[in-house]
Specification:
The chain is mainly beta. The protein contains 4 helices and 26 strands. The protein has an 8-stranded mixed beta sheet, with no helix packed on it. It is globular, with a radius of gyration of 20 Å.
Length: about 350
């Protein structure tokens, strides 16, 4: 008989599915950013033509692609200097400008972006992090709009958090250390920042919270449109997250028609999987090998009890969520925690499921 002790884990410590970078579409082609042995852009066209691969710039931190144009955020000569490079054909990359997150008298904590998305007309949408939130006009936030100044520096022009319906006090400071933080009840919001990149379609930008199964849908100019929840009714507000639970979403990719193909755990797995073990924020000790071992045993048990994978189609334009049949070649069950940790997929130009990124 397997007996499990009580384990307490923050969201950051629980096993999660693979970091599945969202692909984009343009002119019948798919564009994928792959961070594997090599950092590259993979372009695949219709028919039997082989995929074409292009190297990303050296020290790329993240790369967004929209309408066939790449925007790479890279490491700079200093920790808070981030060169931004652009490429249309991916053969050559050109310096567009620099994000300067260094402290100034006017703005002691500008913050650092994890993702930058071009909006057109010289405007950009910036996604921050809980470690380096943006500060503007005396307020702090994790989502911002920016533009380049005359010196080629990308500057925050306004914060976007409140426009998306997020709590005004989302980003605070630790009273003792002075470090930025997110209060524990808002951990689900941190999931929108950097674990998976925003999904980009021709008409929408979609922020994904794998943990809650929520999509925050923005239009092509990053203006809030709607919030879509896979398991409707589980989540009342960002501040009132339900009791600790398994991640809802294990993978998602945009289709050629702008809808999103989504793979999730079952509702039973989300709501009852945690009964295999107990987890609460803040008390997991990552230096304790016994805690990690117990965690792995518990997570494997959760998957054995609730192995099913459900597949869904989400329409960002209407907010419609509909369960769909398992795509040809896709799994309908998880094998174990390793399968979950390595779960990645993409779609070929014919919208067919392909394992891996």
């Amino acid at each position: 008989m397997l007996v499990l002790g009580i384990i307490a884990l923050p969201l950051s410590a629980q096993i999660r599915s693979g970091l599945n970078k969202p692909q984009t579409w343009d002119g019948g082609k798919t564009f994928r950013v792959v961070f594997g042995v090599a950092q590259e852009v993979v372009i695949e066209g219709p028919g039997r033509n082989p995929a074409v691969r292009f190297a990303l710039p050296k020290d790329t931190l993240n790369c967004s692609i929209h309408e066939g144009t790449g925007l790479a955020l890279t490491k700079g000569p200093e920790p808070k200097l981030r060169p931004i490079l652009e490429s249309i054909g991916f053969n050559k990359w050109f310096l567009l400008g620099m994000y300067d997150g260094r402290s100034t008298k006017e703005n002691p904590e500008p913050g650092l972006p994890t993702h930058i998305l071009a909006l057109g007309d010289g405007k950009f949408f910036l996604v921050g992090s809980s470690l380096h939130p943006f500060e503007y006009a005396g307020a702090r936030g994790f989502f911002a709009f920016g533009a380049f100044d005359t010196k080629g520096r990308l500057k925050v022009q306004s914060l976007a958090d409140a426009r998306f319906g997020f709590p005004a006090d989302l980003c605070q400071k630790n009273r003792k250390s002075g470090e930025p933080w997110i209060e524990p009840s808002l951990n689900a919001l941190e999931d929108l920042m950097g674990w998976d990149e925003p999904i980009r379609t021709s008409d929408h930008i979609i922020l994904v919270s794998k943990h809650t199964g929520i999509f925050v849908v923005l239009d092509e100019r990053a203006r809030f449109k709607r919030q879509v929840e896979i398991f409707h009714g589980r989540f009342s507000s960002w501040r009132e997250e339900p009791a600790p639970h398994e991640d809802v979403i294990i993978g998602c990719q945009p289709r050629s028609d702008g809808s999103i193909l989504v793979a999730t755990r079952s509702r039973d797995a989300v709501e009852r999987g945690m009964k295999a073990y107990t987890r609460s924020y803040g008390s997991f000790n990552p230096k304790d090998p016994a805690a990690w071992n117990q965690q792995q045993i518990a997570e494997d048990l959760s998957i054995r009890l609730f192995p099913h994978i459900l597949w869904w189609l989400v329409d960002p334009a209407t907010g419609t969520v509909s369960e769909t049949s398992t795509p040809l070649g896709a799994p309908n069950r998880l094998k174990d925690r390793v399968h979950l940790a390595e779960f990645k997929f993409h779609l070929d130009p014919a919208d067919k499921f392909v394992v891996g990124d």
